[in-house]
# Entry
Amino acid sequence: MHGLYLRSPLPLAAALVFGALLTLAACGDDSGGKEEATDMGMECTPGTSYTCQAPGGCSGRQHCTDLGYLTSCRCDETSTDTDSMGVGDGGFMMGGDPGVGDRGDGGGLVDTQSDAGNDVGNDAGTQTSSGGEICDNGSDDDGDGDIDCADSDCSALRCVEPAPEGWQGPLMLAAGVNAPPACSGALSEEALAGGANLTASAASCSSCSCSPGSCSYTWFVHDSTDTSCSASVTGTGDASGCTLFEDAAASKRVRLKGTGASACTPSSQSPSVPDASFGLRVRACQPGAALEAQGCGGGQLCMPRGAAPYDSDTCILQAGEHACPAGVYSLRSVFYTDIDDSRGCSDCSCGAENCDTGWNIYAGDDASCTTVTSSVASTAQCHLTDFGSGSIRVGPEPGGGSCTPSGGEPTGTASGSGATTVCCAN
# Structure
């Protein structure tokens, strides 16, 4: 029962006597129990009210006026409580006029109506736990009005927006030059491992070369007047060695022609391909179980922060390249889960065999072709030769049958594959 408390400094016996006198004064006399409707003169807090024992033994209420004084006790028509006196918490609950008592420490008036309102605001409907808030049971364990994720005691949790339809998440993203640590703890499920800012240098190729082939040559002798050595062939001969030509004419024209060749052999290619790598490595982790509200409002979900570096960026993702959805997840990045790498080098090859070579003229009696009398730079030359002695010898220089190498050029590219769009909260 609400009422007035007199916390009396008097000895207990004296206080009981004093209280009885007050009760008699409040409970009526020979006047028939009528109460005077006058201000009782007791200072109080404007707007508050108190239970009291009205004359005649009924329970009533007193109200504090705008001027800060109590009105007289008036009967409450709905109350039949006649208990006017009892022992309260450390004092005596008085049902009579609230003008008695020590206003110092330990005594005076106690506004039990106002206190009751404060108690309801702080404690009503809550459960108190000596261990503080339990952050995953959907209850307000510490009685502060906040549940789980919404409680400041649960700093390892946060309220986040759910992922829109077609998107995966919410999840926590970490990024760095090196790969972030594996997912663990509250964020045990890996949603993405990849990167961006791909670096892939071109392959280094080995030089190409061609081993020479072998050419077959034929000597052609022409009249001295055939300046292009295109007609009037007067003799031919195999030019595989030191070849003798005899003729009574004073001079002839001689030309060396390649008549056949074996192909050159190209060298093999040994490319060196440097590693392709992402300059930015990322990993996204999410809880192993579906998220629930757990104290979050507005359709939000309760999300564990995870240990660093998975404690800041809340994101969503979708395979492929997409625009971010409307809402808080508006910071867009595209990461790749793999690398398509076709870098290498083109194969070495050899062009047409070049049988052009220089050749020499020797005296007809130089059977081993040891003393060169004149030299010709190329097989393309139609050379006028003095046959004054009636004969000459000819022989090719070594080195015919060369080929021009080609190939050994960097080819291909490297690019990210498995594109994934990640949108993070702004």
Remarks:
- Residues 215-261+358-398 form one domain.
- Residues 359 and 397 are 5 Å apart (CA to CA).
